[in-house]
Amino acid sequence: MRRVGLAGAAHLELVSGVIRLRPQDAMGEAMLRGWRAQQTARGLREETIAERERLVRQFMAFTNEYPWRWTPAHVDEWSMSLTAERHLAPATIRAYQGTLRIFNEFLCDGRYGWAVACEQEFGPGEHPVAIVHEWNSIAHLQSYEGDPDERPFSRDELQRFLDYADDQVERAVRAKRKGALAAYRDATLFKVMYGWGLRRTETSKLDIADWGRNPAAPQFGRYGSLHVRYGKAKRGQPPRRRNVLSVFGWAVEAVSDYVENVRPRFGFTDHPALWVTERGGRIQPPEINARFVSYREALGLPRTLSPHALRHAYVTHNTEDGVDRRFIQVQVGHESDSSTAIYTHVSDDFMNTALRKALAPALGPAPSDGKDR
């Protein structure tokens, strides 16, 4: 087969005519360098490449074998250890298996020449073979594999939670103690998470400049649209951006009051972040978690509720209110309606109302009084 200059090809990573003291180790490192070069040429992020390499090295250490000696049985043993010893979720194990499959397919691809290089170095039969197959990897049978206990806030729970967050501001002010500004910031942060259907990371990385006008909703002023710059990325790709249009007037009023009247009192006017700390830093996702948990525990709400439940509630409540599903899907950044459906847990009242609407054409109008029955 003709050698080609593809990034990651064996002849580009191996120096001919050089005697190696540890040829197996040298070959293994060359394979990883080649894979890195191939992924870099494809435009993958450095964090993704590094994480993939780390996983392959872990598998290599687990098997105590070099890649050209790996077999499907090694994958079986490794997958079993991930389940029985590390207790990882099926989705996580499948992702690990997928990474291993990508590396293995790279080595077996004849265009890169690694099989030929191994046989030239170590003898006939010493070459990589396919090790991850349908029958030894976890199939993606469901669109959602998260904890089935996870659910959105009910409207009553949401109101209690947001009211409690507001109460913490008033308590701090009455007690004349520190923390009133931080409490106000966090109360507004939770309103923004729900009001625009955001994830924690998306919320923590917001800047003041991310707010903009929406000509179709002039009543919201400069807060008619929110540019989310750090949306959830696809594997190996940069964060996905999206614009989220403002829907709730009360949420716009809350963030407007915070930005214009409260945030300046932190004293860091030159900091771009929407959510700043008392020391001039940017709020991080773990801090959002900590505040959320403290409020949830104080209210005695179910522990299955997480900050992400605010995003679920945004989808569910808008669905119950009759908002177009396609609009909701674009708002929250889902590529398919099936993903949005996962977030939707409508109430019994909503289902009963929908049922009555569905049955109305067949049953006809309801009687006006008992005489017509």
UniProtKB/TrEMBL annotation:
<dbReference type="InterPro" id="IPR002104">
    <property type="entry name" value="Integrase_catalytic"/>
</dbReference>
<keyword id="KW-0238">DNA-binding</keyword>
<keyword id="KW-0233">DNA recombination</keyword>
<protein>
    <submittedName>
        <fullName>Site-specific recombinase XerD</fullName>
    </submittedName>
</protein>
<feature type="domain" description="Tyr recombinase">
    <location>
        <begin position="148"/>
        <end position="356"/>
    </location>
</feature>
<feature type="domain" description="Core-binding (CB)">
    <location>
        <begin position="25"/>
        <end position="108"/>
    </location>
</feature>
<dbReference type="Pfam" id="PF00589">
    <property type="entry name" value="Phage_integrase"/>
</dbReference>
<dbReference type="InterPro" id="IPR010998">
    <property type="entry name" value="Integrase_recombinase_N"/>
</dbReference>
<dbReference type="GO" id="GO:0003677">
    <property type="term" value="F:DNA binding"/>
</dbReference>
<dbReference type="InterPro" id="IPR011010">
    <property type="entry name" value="DNA_brk_join_enz"/>
</dbReference>
<dbReference type="InterPro" id="IPR044068">
    <property type="entry name" value="CB"/>
</dbReference>
<dbReference type="GO" id="GO:0015074">
    <property type="term" value="P:DNA integration"/>
</dbReference>
<dbReference type="InterPro" id="IPR050090">
    <property type="entry name" value="Tyrosine_recombinase_XerCD"/>
</dbReference>
<dbReference type="InterPro" id="IPR013762">
    <property type="entry name" value="Integrase-like_cat_sf"/>
</dbReference>
<dbReference type="GO" id="GO:0006310">
    <property type="term" value="P:DNA recombination"/>
</dbReference>
<comment type="similarity">
    <text>Belongs to the 'phage' integrase family.</text>
</comment>
